[in-house]
Fold:
Amino acid sequence: MPDSLPSQVLSELCSAVGPEWIITDRDRLLVYEADAQTAHRSRPRAVVLPRTTEEAASVFGILHRNGIPVVPRGAGTGLSGGALALRGGVVVGTSRMNRILELDPENRRALLQCGVVNSHLSAAAAPFGLYYPPDPSSQTACTIGGNVAENSGGPHCLKYGVTTRYITGLRVVLPDGDLLWLGGQGKDSPALDLVGLFVGSEGCFGLAAEVEVALLPLPEGTRTLLAIFERLEDAGRAVTDIISAGLLPAALEIVDRNTIRAVEASIFAAGYPTDAEAALVVEFDGLERGLDEEAERAGECCAAAGAREVRRARTSEERVALWKGRKKAFGAMGRLAPDLLVQDATVPRTRLPEVLARISEIAGRHRLQVANVFHAGDGNLHPNIVFDRRDPEETRRVEEASKEIMMTCVEAGGTITGEHGVGCDKRKYMPLVFSAVELEALREVKAVFDPQGLCNPGKVLPDPEEAP
Amino acid sequence: MSGSIRAALADTVPSEALLPESEVGGWNPGGGPPEVVVAPSSEEEVSLVLARAGQEGWRVLPAGMGRWLKGGGALKVDLVLSTVRLRGMQEYEPADLTFTAFGGTPLRELQAAFLAKGQWLPLDPPGGRGGSLGALVALGLAGPLRQGFGTPRDHVLGLTLVTGDGRILRWGGRVVKNVAGFDLTRLSVGNWRSLGIITSVSARLFPMPAEEVTLVLAAPAAEDLLATARAVALSPLPVSAIELLDPLPGEDEARAGLALRLLGSRAQVEEMETRIRGEWGRVGGSPTLGASAIRRFSGAESREFQQGLEDWEEDAALVLRMSLLPSRLETLLREARQLASLPGGFPPSGRPGPPLAAHVGAGVLRVAIGGLPEGGKPLDEWVRALQGLRERVLRNGGSLTLSVGPEKIMREVGAWGAMGAEGKIVEGLRRQFDPKGTLPPGRFAPRVP
Structure:
């Protein structure tokens, strides 16, 4: 348990944000000791909740002058331990920075405070016929600032791309409390892409206090299919066939047998057949005209790949039902065991079948149960291992299997994280994808923003002395 | 001094990597010929050359095939480092819709390989067909297709950057989603040769659309087309390019045009065309404009029309690129018209002012100045006018860059203009990637006093 803050620092923070917005009470700090990846825990020394960008800048400045590490935190839905305060750090929570500052349908953009919830933005834009495409599973809770930090994805990035594509400007608080505009106003000058660099920096370069986003018009129509397969490889082949046919679905999602069973046994039961090996959700969106034809062709690809059944949603209720088994997968897995390790590796799409077979083999060898949920269209796998943390021997097997799965994905031309980030969870695996020279270059880039190393220390980069 | 770099490099790279002296002339347009043009055939050789340059204090201009070297203004360099011998596809798996190729690979060659598999890289930068993949990515160039597909920042999945001091760094990969480590891929795309040289690129591809149509709406002036252009840009129609052109190329009678590129399945393209014709009838196409007010190109004709647009900047003495929020395109048009009162020749188009081309959806307006005064007071007037124009555009939250221009204008107005407070980050990054200052110094000039 870290020491509490020096009284003079506390009083400076109090005058910056008001005493009621500083949490130092041990019990209340408990909420902030982990994110959604609960394997890692560390209680912060304090939590400060600014309301404005200027208040946030003051807080960063005060902590910096006193040599105290600082960690930005959105809704705490992250899955890599990225928002944990390590090394005696203070959390700057953005829950009060939740205003939409500007909604500009004429330019299809919006300016937001970082604490705006992802789905609230789309709700606010809907009356103008617009929406914000990146849709991580936690979108009803996670914040735009957290999405910027993690460069979040979601099921629909096959067609629409990930967060970075939609961020056009950032007003950032640098670790020393300086304020800086990067990009913005639809700025389009050919200069170093500092906005692109800041997106995905996992809170290590400062706080993205205000975020300018691009919005898209709501699609006129949507078609959703659910294909049921006897073999997981067949579902994988259907995905490849759909892409090879020149179709570009908005989403291509697979859940495997273990996931289907978990879902069907839970309160989220979606009517997926429990004897199936895989279910594939295919969705098309865009102009109403032409959608039926696309859905038809995708359905044919599924049938040709061996689907025993292809269901089509005809109403929006039916669409929600088809998606349910996929969207509620994580919630349902909670039934299987006390703990769940959510993996997030990515491989080239065509390598999916062999990688899935390898994962199944690894899990079997370590006597573990893996439930697969994945964004098949972009090769982003979420092999989830259910276990009981109270059993140290099982936990050790989970660790070993986890590392083997990641090595398998890297060997197949993929990487260790597709959308959840490195955080403190995967930093020991960074040497699997980067050479020592590259890791050093990443450290140098961080030092340009954060020369004192006070902003979210202990994340993303392994310490130089740590062996792979 | 002469010949000393050539001699020193003879120990560093095989002799075939050194272009004959007779061929170095054209490699640094405007900045004087370099002493040597070196074209390594491996990333390791690129690294050795840059490391050596750092030791010797040579100044090096990274290049691909020699396209776009005028961009950003003339530079004095000792050495041009070209990737022309570092070329070819490294990996292409059509079912993954991704590829990896060496930086020096000609774009033309790549597109032919993709086309054979029914795919394409939907980028149409100015002058693009003559350039290399690495140079395109280094400059982050995009054309009209950015409306539908984005810019290289949205396509590139990974790359190899050999830094100014010769470190070989591989970022990203060939998977579409990748958040391991900071996004140095994005930082490297559009770095304008200020951080290193790009020797290999992985990017995503798209299926070749089944149907292609370009609709060109014509009117006496660009302003007459603005309402329709904005309406299309703000509609839910997935139009791939919305380009406002004044004058419209290839016409006998000088008039403006709105070129709309429609790509997709047959049903989608038909639907877009029907709705655009409806919109045009409602807003823009008055009966007085006549039947010739709309032209239609399909298939190969459409592609040919669009390829013609890639040459739009060719041969201009000065190209301005202005950007504001798209809703303020009219302001940009008005500003561009004012350049007409300056001394100097425009091509005899009979138009009020220089040729204009706008990416309507992005709020980017390009202005091509055909001829400029040789010098003296008339050229000074241009310098002052451009400085004033940049100031006004900046004040409105936009930007003005000069893609190419005569030496005096590039020096006194600057290709990019002053950097704001982000200058200290940019300088910090450059120091990390190019600690010895080997790469061209004139890119993204730091804050001017």
User: Anything to note?
Assistant: Chain A is about 35% helix and 20% strand. Chain A has a mean pLDDT of 93. Chain A touches chain B through 90 residues (CB under 8 Å). The radius of gyration of chain A is 22 Å.
